[in-house]
């Protein structure tokens, strides 16, 4: 990671001819503690901090020692503020600017902060100011990078096997699978079963583009004449917690004959929880409706819905329909 990856590009600057009153207004308005000072050509000529401003306004230790009235009468201090507020920034700035380039590694940037004890570092591209980095930016970058490495190294607690058969349904299946994996600290195994030898599966190549450290994706090519058996076998071998596959039939989902031989076999023999996705094109996940009768699969449906909602900042509505006079408590449960 380099300086350009963490720098703040909307840099607040101040002219060297600005007054200290104007400088104070900039500090207050932008909530910053250090500002690059530029000349009329917008070239960086110095740095000024809140500390510089405070030192210019408040009396020094020697002045306090020689005139103790500062300690008891704030009128003296008010007079001093009025005296210095029209001073120019160039009179109090630090003229020697310590800077880095966009390609400076963040560990080297961090070392500069430690050695020079400064608050901010301008990022330069030649003579042009392109960004600024604060100490807090460095802390977040370094500890964030360590946290990501730890997350990558930690074992995954949930495994999802996604069976891919058609390019049209890949986006929906992979979007759902990676969202669930991210919410449950899991990983995704993208399976493609081919009945004949293929040099490389385009489905698995595309599935790999959904990989991230939050939801790792592993390609799993198989060659098998009986697709249903291959899917069930792969789920068992990988000790999958959830098996996902698409359903593209147009016939109503009423009996096994209507869902195809492969899906029928998987439904009957799946070694883990099963999610069958009928793909109608998934662009956004904003609102999720979960109809439930309180059966044995209700808890799994709710967990999947909540995982999807968490990953996409969506909402979940649980729907239970009861007949007049039916058990209301059962529905609420």
Overview in brief:
By secondary structure, the chain is an alpha/beta fold. 41% of the residues lie in helices and 21% in strands. The chain has helices spanning 3-6, 20-30, 50-57, 61-66, 69-72, 74-84, 106-116, 135-153, 167-183, 202-207, 227-237, 261-269, 298-312, 328-332; strands at residues 14-15, 34-38, 44-49, 100-101, 120-125, 128-134, 158-163, 186-194, 217-223, 242-246, 273-277, 287-291, 315-319.
Describe the protein's architecture and organization.
- With 333 residues, this protein is α/β, with parallel strands linked by helices.
- It is 41% helix and 21% strand.
- It has helices spanning 3-6, 20-30, 50-57, 61-66, 69-72, 74-84, 106-116, 135-153, 167-183, 202-207, 227-237, 261-269, 298-312, 328-332; strands at 14-15, 34-38, 44-49, 100-101, 120-125, 128-134, 158-163, 186-194, 217-223, 242-246, 273-277, 287-291, 315-319.
- The strands form four sheets. A five-stranded parallel beta sheet has the order 9-8-7-10-11, with helices on both faces. Strands 1-2-3 form a three-stranded mixed beta sheet. A three-stranded mixed beta sheet has the order 4-5-6.
- Strand 8, helix 10 and strand 9 form a beta-alpha-beta unit.
- Helix 9 crosses helix 13 (298-312).
- Mean pLDDT is 81; it is low at 251-258.
């Amino acid at each position: 990671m380099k300086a350009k990856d963490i720098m703040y590009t909307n840099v607040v600057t101040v002219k060297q001819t600005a007054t200290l009153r104007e400088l104070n207004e900039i500090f207050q308005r932008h909530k910053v503690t250090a500002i690059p000072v530029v000349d009329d050509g917008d070239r960086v000529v110095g740095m000024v901090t809140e500390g510089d401003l405070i030192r210019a306004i408040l009396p020094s230790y020697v002045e306090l020692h020689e005139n103790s009235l500062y300690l008891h009468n704030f009128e003296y201090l008010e007079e001093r503020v009025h005296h210095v507020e029209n001073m120019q920034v160039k009179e109090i700035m630090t003229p020697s600017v310590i800077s880095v380039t966009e390609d400076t590694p963040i560990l080297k940037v961090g070392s500069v902060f430690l050695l020079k004890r400064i608050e901010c570092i301008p990022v330069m591209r030649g003579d042009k100011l392109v960004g600024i980095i604060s100490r807090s930016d460095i802390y977040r970058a370094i500890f964030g990078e360590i946290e990501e490495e730890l997350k990558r190294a930690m074992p995954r607690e949930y495994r999802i096997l996604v069976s891919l058969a058609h390019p049209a349904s890949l986006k929906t299946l992979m979007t759902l699978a990676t969202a669930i994996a991210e919410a449950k600290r899991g990983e995704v195994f993208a399976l493609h079963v081919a009945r004949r030898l293929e040099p490389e599966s385009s489905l698995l190549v595309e599935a790999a583009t959904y990989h991230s450290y939050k939801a790792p994706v592993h390609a799993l090519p198989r060659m098998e004449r009986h697709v249903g058996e291959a899917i069930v076998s792969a789920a068992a071998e990988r000790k999958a917690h959830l098996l996902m596959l698409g359903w593209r039939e147009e016939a109503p989902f009423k009996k096994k004959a209507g869902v195809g031989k492969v899906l029928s076999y998987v439904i009957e023999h799946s070694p883990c929880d099963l999610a069958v996705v009928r793909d109608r094109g998934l662009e956004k996940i904003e609102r999720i409706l979960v109809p439930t009768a309180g059966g044995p699969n209700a808890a799994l449906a709710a967990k999947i819905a909540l995982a999807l909602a968490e990953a996409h900042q969506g909402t979940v509505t649980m729907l239970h329909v009861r007949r007049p006079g039916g058990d209301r408590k059962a529905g609420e449960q």
